[in-house]
Amino acid sequence: MFKNKPGTGKINPDTTDTLIGEGTIFEGKIRSEASIRIEGSIMGDIMSSGDVIIGENGVANSNINARDLILAGQLNGDADVRGKLTINSTGVLNGNISASSLIIESGGVFNGSSKMTAAKPEAVQPIKASS
Q1: pLDDT value, residue 1
Q2: What are the structural domain ranges in the chain?
Q3: Which of 59, 81, 89, 90 has the smallest number of CB atoms closer than 10 Å to its CB?
């Protein structure tokens, strides 16, 4: 139903293929080549070749590695973002960040330290499954 074209073998990081819905509690690591949206709760690290979006009711007790991060809920952990990190007016980030671009809307909360890096989208490697 949502499969890629036959023979391409690539997953589009611009598509969201993983959703942790509201009322769902997930414990464990997530690794995805596509984007991830969190509306529930997650405890465990997140690695995505695409974007990670944490909705207003979403809570992540995680370290996140992603292309871009949009935070409207709460993140307790560190974020390593290759592109843009956006903390919306309802977002709370308790942890350290590394990003090439940081936007904090009025009302957004950031408790931690930040390190600005140069954007290198061409250096992004696909996530390989571990043995």
Answers
A1: 40
A2: 16-107
A3: 89
